[in-house]
Write a structure and sequence with these properties.
About 55% of the residues lie in helices and about 15% in strands. By secondary structure, it is of the alpha/beta class. The protein folds into 2 domains: about 1-130, Response regulator (Rossmann fold), CATH 3.40.50; about 135-219, Winged helix-like DNA-binding domain superfamily/Winged helix DNA-binding domain (Arc Repressor Mutant, subunit A). It comes from Cryptosporangium phraense.
Length: about 220
Amino acid sequence: MRIVIAEDDALLREGLALLLKAEALDVVATAGDPDEFLAAVEQHHPDVALVDVRMPPTHTDEGIKAAVAARQRYPGLAVLVLSAYVEQAFATELLAGGSAGLGYLLKERVGRVEQFLDALRRVAEGGTAIDPDVVTQLLSRTRSDPRLDRLSPRELDVLKLMAEGLGNAAIAQRLVVTDGAVHKHIRSIFAKLDLPPDDATDRRVTAVLRYLENVRRMG
């Protein structure tokens, strides 16, 4: 796995590089600003990029804009965005282009090394990894949608874990239920959220992320 890191905090940037190298992962470049990051992606063609949301010069949304630009130029690039806070508007902008090979984590997760590495590998393999706190806030802000109000408490639990990017077996383990029970809940979620079986999108993620535009309107 070839990785580019975009983080303006030199200490965190080098710490991430050391952590990943210790796991025998190939950090091909590090960058301290969006221009350096985009140049590194063009030069090295990494499999995955770690990108901070807030970068120079204004430390607002430069990282998100750079990540969006990188994915537009290189559609196969997986991106794991790191943020110090839950920034829903930025998550919406990034996720608007599709959720495959995409992650959004709070920086505090980096300290939980196994969770961080699991998210990184999941994203690099084309999956999704969204921080549980982001999912919780998305759900709490979109409960006014009548389709979400149809879901039972257990279905909401399953939906949150789906949105984090967990598969059926991992959801079953987390909730201490059978795989069959999870499959049944997911079928019910799709039905209640009006997601037909022939939907061409990734219904697992769409079940939550389809409401991002609604979140933006509500915000």
